[in-house]
Amino acid sequence: xxxxxxxxxxxxxxxxxxxxxxxxxxxxxxxxxxxxxxxxxxxxxxxxxxxxxxxxxxxxxxxxxxxx
Length: 68
Hints:
The chain has one helix spanning 20-25; strands at 46-51, 56-61.
């Protein structure tokens, strides 16, 4: 595999939020290789996972202050 390099087409330090079709329409053609999402979103639940070989317990809340 080749080493990834910064894009000259878009600022890769930006997180684009919104409907994917609307956001993609604003970007130059062929500048996106992958879109990754990990639902559920804003499920209003608490999650606990056991991470790695040490089974470290990690927890997070799936809540947002604003869901415009």
